[in-house]
Amino acid sequence: MSTVQISSPVRTLHYVRTGPRGGIPVVLLHPAGLDLGYWDRHLAALRDDHDVIALDLPGHGASTGSPQDWALGRATGILAAFLQGLDIPEAHLVGLSVGGMLAQSLALAEPAVVRSLTLMGTAASFSPDGRAAIRDRAQAARTQGMAALVPAAIARWFTPQTVARRPDLIDRATTTLLADDPEVHAAVWDMVADLDLAPQLGRITCQTLVLVGASDQSTPLTAARELRDGISGAQLHVVPDTSHLAPLERPDLTSAHLLAFLEQQR
Q1: What is the mean pLDDT of residues 141-148?
Q2: Is the sign of the CA dihedral 179, 182, 183, 184 positive or negative?
Q3: Which residue of 39, 62, 171, 262 sits 20 to 30 Å from the alpha carbon of 233, by its own alpha carbon?
Q4: How many domains does the chain have?
């Protein structure tokens, strides 16, 4: 377990790093409300052949942070400063949900830093109805606290089959959500509600893999196709029997897709 001090803006980000050094690192970015621990199966799958890093995003897990960190430009700058603080000039970015949005943003802001993108269960933009629902989520976090958000989050994140078969995973995610700062959580969703990177996707030139759960209602196949069609040469794979957090429901399959994609970048 390690931390890195980000001097501009000032934040301490917690991270774990494993695997052989010397290659281009693989950096794992988790979704809103969770933390780096949810990448455990992917860290295990990658560590034999890759220098792999997972970090807690600002205000999540053991990283310090505040609602003000969650304007898109500021959050992107914190991620860029994190990589600079570890003397990483170039990285393969792997982002799930909000992590994938930050990965897109960094690829647009600092293209030389991003060797490849793996975008899991994420989007570049939302419909007006989607934006309204996300703003309602932010408001509920502020006014009612995290407990009010848990049932809907679990229903979005996992298939009914996973809910029935994996009470351990559901309990773990519920416990993490209940421990979150509702103001930070609300600020993340405010940022997401305003997200509109779709018109800029054509400027992303790195190799890109898009993964989407077959039953994902939050960032469905239409959102994944927008990413694939907007980013030249992007690959798209649908993960069966999964919803929004496919890497938690099928870590075996998402790891296999990721490993195959990274092998293509050698």
Answers
A1: 98
A2: positive
A3: 39
A4: 1
The CA-atom distances, in angstroms, between 231 and each of 53, 124, 204, 220 are 25, 11, 6, 17
In-domain check, residue 136: no
Give the model's pLDDT for residue 12. Answer: 87
With pLDDT > 70 as the criterion, what percentage of the chain qualifies?
96
Q: Are 65 and 57 in contact (CB under 8 A)?
A: yes
Taking residues 138-159, report their average pLDDT: 98
CATH of the domain at 201: 3.40.50.1820
pLDDT of residue 31: 98
- Count of alpha carbons within 13 Å of 44, Cβ hemisphere only? 7
Q: What residues have CB less than 8 Å from 105, skipping those under 6 apart? A: 72, 75, 76, 197
Q: Which two tokens stand for residue 219?
A: 């960032």
Residue 180 domain-assigned?
no
Positive or negative, the Cα torsion across 65, 67, 70, 76?
negative
Q: What is the pLDDT of residues 45-69, one digit of tens each?
A: 999 999 999 999 999 999 999 999 9
| Of 19, 16, 91, residue with least CA distance to 48 | 19
The rounded Cα 242 to chain-centroid distance in angstroms is 16
Average pLDDT of the chain, as a whole number = 95
Q: How confident is the model at residue 2 (pLDDT cuts 50, 70, 90)?
A: low
Q: In this structure, which amino acid lies at residue 156?
A: R
If you search the block for the tokens 């949810």, which residue do you land on? 38
Q: Hunting for tokens 């069966």 — which residue is that?
A: 240
Size of the chain, expressed as the number of residues it contains? 266
Position 151 in a domain = no
| Cα separation, 78 vs 188, whole angstroms | 14
CB 34 within 8 A of CB 69: no
In a domain, 53, yes or no: yes
Contacts of 3 (CB under 8 A, 6+ apart): 12, 13, 14, 15, 62, 63
